[in-house]
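Backbone geometry tokens:
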Amino acid sequence: MTALDWTLVVLLNGSIIVYALFRAKETHTSSDWFLAGRTLPWWIIGLSLYATAIDSTDMVVDSGGAYQFGVSMFIVSWVGIVIGWLLMAYVIGLPMYRAGMYTNAEYLEARFGPAARIISVLVQVQFRTMVLGMIGQSFYLTLVIVLGMSDTAAWSTVVAIALLATIYTMAGGLKAVAVTDAMQSAVMVVASVAMFMIVFNHVGGWTGIQNKLTQHGDAESIAALLHVGTDRVAHTPTAEMTALEIENLLLLGGEHNETTSAISVRTPIWLVCLSLTITGVAYSVVNHTQSMRMFGARSEWDFKLSVVLASAVLIGGTFLNLMQGIMGRALYPTADLLPVAASLQTVDAIFPVLLRDLVVPGLKGIVVAGIMAASFSTYDSIGSTISALLTRDVYGRLLVTNRDDQHYLFVGRWLTPIIIFGSFLYLPWLDGGMFNFYLQMVGAIVSPLLTVYLMGATTRVHRRSGAIGLAVGVVYGIWWLAAQRAAADGIQLLPTALMNPMATAPVSMLLTATAMLIFSLVAGWTPRGELMHEEPEGWLRTTQHEVVVRGESSLSRTSNLVPMVQKDATSSAQDDIVVLIHTDEGITGIGETDVNPWIARACIEAPGTHTMGQGLKEMLLGENPLDIERLWEKLYVGSAMNGRRGALICAMGALDMALWDIRGKAEGKPCWQLLGDAAGDHITPYASLQPSGTSFEQYKQSLVDWACRAKEYGFKAGKMEVTFGGPYKHNGLSAPDEKVTEVVAACRAAVGPDFDIMVDVQYTWSDAERALRTLRDWKDLNIFFVETPLAIDNLEGYARLHEEAPMPIAAGEWQNTRFEFAELMDVGKIDIAQPDVGRVGGLTEARRVCDMAAERGLRIVPHCWKTGIGIAATAHLAAVTPHCPYIEFQPASLCESVLRKELVVDELEIREGVVPLPQKPGLGIELNDEAILKYSVD
């Protein structure tokens, strides 16, 4: 190592550490330390996942594994870890994220009880601190072989790295760790590329690798190194063994060939692939260093997309790193040929030897910096992860349950050095090849825990089966480890077929799953929906509620979006409540309603206090989300004492909308196909236009301009809001009724006779007589309908307008349920019914209102004044309603509401004045998570 090399090592890693300490100032609470305050974007999570997965053991230890086992080692990362990440993002981890969990162990208590949670912590502590020991050992080998350091100097350097990682991890927690991981990943990738190109060129490319391997070994061994589809055959020389030692060694399996003086153990390739896949999946699922980063995601979108980036980078990084072992095998066919001291001649020394002998100064500094960055990234990751597990799942759960947040932040920080430096206790166990030791421990201890996570997420096994399955699996694993050591003394504790390390993980998983299934057959199955529970009282529950995002089919997430509030606003598009319902199968339904979002949320989330005063959310627990009509009746009856009308029905409307979205997605059909037969191949929209201005002339001109723009946009009709009196008086303007007529006449003149005009006077007139005096003046303006001219409870007045007004009368935007519409139709005699899907009680109730209107010969023109969510639901309703000539549709480009513009990504589009029927499953929309994050006031 030259001065340039050392400069690169210090500069690249030192700058990252300094930045980590700078970012540590942002950490103030336990949520910041354990979850980065749930602020991490997908790309930081993805690179952090990669940096944590590809630590210095992958450069050193996994190269040794590839040297020993060949390209089958790729299966761990390319297949196992990637599958595990996808399972976490879409099946296992997503419900945990939605429930506001801090650790993956919390899920096991929710699903299987506290015993499973504690066992998970103990297994992870053992599992991950063992890896820390492997990192120390691998970096020690690099320092001794590459730099020629003495044992004391090398171990002192390893300790110094561990100490630096401890300092910035203690200070910043995940907020600092994830960002530095992302930066360190860049150094690691550059180092991997540089090292690969140098060794690849030295060995002579692909042809050189194959030729050199052929010169050194038999065809079967070479095939096993270069091809995944070849059985793995391991040979152990026996020339210097006694007959008793050979006999004892055969207890582990294999056949003794006296001619070659070797014991050969053949492992079928299917078993190799299965075992290595399990190893990779276990890494992603059981390992909280992975889930911790994902739980810090700022949104579900970031949560899911992060694993896509991590997988892409991992596939490339794995190839670059593990090929070092295969290329090293071509140069040094056996470990005893490695040009190092005899005490260092193990398969794990191959990477340091290649680095020392082949890499030139300058590049050598980059590679060593990459190895050091990989060590830092995993020291900090595992240190913070195990600290989180011990703090939340042991200390806060069992020992000290209700101290203030700063106390637990202090505990989490100071557990970090204990964990990192405690890992050095593993060093005496790693002499026989670190990957082999890792594989044995995964098969014996970690596989049962993986099985419990998978069974919990994908089956309804009994709650108590988790602890029983873990006990069976772990006992078998410990027994297998004991059998390995007993064989050296000639004691056979297991059949020879089970002694192969590759068989341990599959057998352990099979035993664990079988025990869980048998117990469940006897004790019963867990009912659907009873999978997630809140933390016990105290700090755990308080902090969980700080980040909770409700999930499962039994729970809903409600987001109040309020870019701004003007209490005198006449448009309800300034705020919204978005309701998400998540199913066990991973489907998310989307709904909204047009009512005060805080009141709607209370209606949904408030617990019940009476047999007919139950909470809406809790009534959905364990229910089949596809049985929508029955659920509507259950919610309506069960909440009757809380409110048979008003905000509670609006909240039901949002839930019902989301349930129809779920059903459509589950069946792969747009909602209108589930609601009935299509009335045509398109829907005709009208533009809903709201004026602006602080004077009458400004007001009139703005509305005229909006009407002209709507016609230019392709609309065939538009609704003009003209209000100078009543509760909706725009901008405080007041004018006589003659001015209303002047505005309407100006709009008609501007758009011409081939454009249908509706007029919304928004409850302006106090009685029918006054309304008729103005409406009679409009008889020659060809008005398609007049909306809500009177207070909605003045049914007698509406009946008179039906008889005497020269145009149809429309109303119903505020009506809740079909029962209120029955009064409006039968007593108020309206000509056009205007159900609002969210307010009337959802698509279920809106469809009933449409049927009632058809029976009475009335038309339907649905009201919708919110975002793309409600507009999409309205479009599906109109698609199956033949007596619906128009729907209210306000394009984002003709609107000033930021929620209308930004909340929904995939908007319905107008083509030649009509909207084609939606074709995507469910409501057919996608939310903009950034808008939810930006405008949420939760």
Summary: The radius of gyration is 34 Å. Residues 595 and 848 are 21 Å apart (CA to CA).
